[in-house]
Design a protein that fits this description.
Layout (H helix, E strand, L loop, with lengths): L1 H32 L3 H23 L5 H5 L1 H23 L4 H8 L2 H13 L5 H18 L8 H23 L6 H21 L12 E3 L2 E3 L2 H26 L1 H8 L1 H14 L5 H18 L24
Antiparallel strand pairs: 1-2
Helix pairs in contact: 1-10, 1-12, 2-4, 2-9, 2-10, 4-8, 4-9, 5-8, 6-8, 6-11, 7-13, 8-10, 8-11, 10-11, 11-13, 12-13
Length: 320
């Protein structure tokens, strides 16, 4: 059973990475047609929220009391792991190069390792540290060396996005104890969409849309086609698969599997957009996969024995 759960968790984690990774291909036509990043993010989260609203209610058996009891978890997930990450990511892009923003945001798995080290005061196993180094080196090679001015505020926003991703994994691991995953994700999307809409109304995020036909996968399509695809595949499915992987594997391994998003994004860009992969990017992808394997090989600590060695055995009552 453990083996099958682990296999399913890895499949879900890689599926989430692939779904997140192809999101850029589907969003890019909207941005090129005149959509602002804030409007595109708000639309994709709204589509995903509407799609998961009924399944979330069914998971709750239409009883909203558990949702109210877990309101702080849902608010934290929606405001930080959904809206906060998106807002901080795009705010960072306005001030520093995209490669720097991506590199900082994808440091989340390594940050989780360091946070666990500080919290437990126990050094991670050597295999985890090796995996972290390999993953970091792979990220640098896949994303590419950063250049340009490093605005302090832009770096701060990128760090906030990275912390938001950490919150996503932390809540994904513990939130299932309070709510069904579908209810947690649906509630988080609703909260995130409302927060982003308020941010647009007060001018924190520009909201511009262009309801025109857009270039899509070698042809043209109405604006709502890529929007529906990114909302269903790269948002709703990606979050559901990601939270499922976290529940089966734990936040650490699931976070490192999340790095596959970088690899899948490069591969999809190569296949669909003709963006050539440099040899160093291929090497970087291999290093990221090596880092994931190393973290997967982490040994689970043995449970403490219930009875100390040398202690007197406890008499067992006869069943006769």
């Amino acid at each position: 059973m453990r083996g099958s759960r682990g296999t399913l968790g890895i499949v879900l984690g890689l599926g989430a990475g692939l779904a997140f990774g192809v999101g850029g291909v589907f969003v890019k036509p909207l941005l090129e047609a005149g959509w602002s990043p804030g409007a595109a993010v708000l639309a994709r989260i709204s589509v995903a929220g509407l799609l998961l609203l009924l399944p979330g209610l069914i998971a709750l058996r239409f009883d909203l009391r558990p949702l109210w009891r877990a309101k702080w978890t849902v608010l934290l997930f929606g405001l930080v792991a959904v809206a906060g990450v998106q807002f901080a990511f795009y705010a960072s892009l306005e001030r520093i190069p995209v490669s720097t923003t991506l590199l900082i945001e994808y440091l989340a798995p390594i940050a989780l390792v360091l946070l666990a080290w500080v919290r437990t005061r126990r050094m991670p196993q050597a295999i985890v540290l090796v995996g972290s180094v390999l993953a970091l080196a792979g990220l640098v090679l896949v994303i590419g060396p950063a250049g340009g001015d490093l605005d302090p505020l832009g770096l701060a926003f990128a760090a906030i996005a990275m912390l938001g991703v950490c919150v996503y994994y932390a809540i994904g691991e513990r939130g299932a104890q309070e709510l069904p995953p579908l209810a947690l994700i649906a509630g988080g999307f609703v909260v995130g969409a409302v927060a982003l809409a308020i941010g647009g109304l007060v001018g924190l995020m520009p909201m511009e849309v262009a309801l025109v036909d857009v270039a899509f996968l070698g042809g043209t399509a109405p604006w709502f086609v890529p929007l529906l695809v990114v909302g269903v595949v790269s948002t709703a499915f990606a979050y559901v698969a990601g939270i499922g992987a976290i529940g089966l594997l734990g936040s650490r391994l699931a976070a490192f599997l999340g790095l596959s998003e970088v690899v899948f994004a490069a591969i999809v860009g190569w296949i669909l957009l003709g963006e050539a992969l440099a040899p160093l990017q291929v090497l970087g992808g291999a290093l990221i996969l090596g880092g994931i394997v190393c973290v997967k090989l982490e040994r689970t600590p043995r449970a403490e024995p219930a009875v100390e060695l040398g202690a007197e055995p406890v008499p067992v009552a006869s069943r006769e």
